[in-house]
Structure formats: structure tokens, C-alpha cells
Amino acid sequence: xxxxxxxxxxxxxxxxxxxxxxxxxxxxxxxxxxxxxxxxxxxxxxxxxxxxxxxxxxxxxxxxxxxxxxxxxxxxxxxxxxxxxxx
Length: 87
Prior knowledge:
The chain is mostly beta strands. The chain has one domain. It is about 15% helix and about 40% strand. It has one helix and four strands; from the N terminus they run ββββα. It has a four-stranded antiparallel beta sheet, with helices on one face.
């Protein structure tokens, strides 16, 4: 069986910074790819995430280049939580 990539879109309402970024990124919608591989030896189909990437710049924003950056899903979840609950 082959690997798969699931694509999602996340929305930030304010600037955010993830570990490894040189500068904060502006608010907007960002495409995120989750690479997954099947778990072997299971009696049902199960997938394990092996990598996560965010596409920069945001959807609809222009830039000199478009890039994919590897990120930690936990860091993305924390940044989204902070963005949605800024207390």
C-alpha cells in the first residue's frame, strides 16, 4: 500500500509565529499537508502521520516564491489555539 497526503486549510485571524520561522506570518488561510503511511499488521486500515507541512505564503497572498515548510503538528495546534483564544 502507498502513502497518502491529506490536505487541510487552517485560518489565522492574527499574525503567528511557528518554531523555525524567520518572521511572523500574516493572518490568513494556509494550506497544510499531512503525509501519512499505512500501519502494517493491523486487521483494519489505519494511518500514521509521518510529516506535516505548511504552505507559505497564505492562500490568496502573492509572494516571490511559494514554499512548503515542515512543522510540528503540536506547534500548529498550539498556535491555532492561541489565535482562537487570545486571553
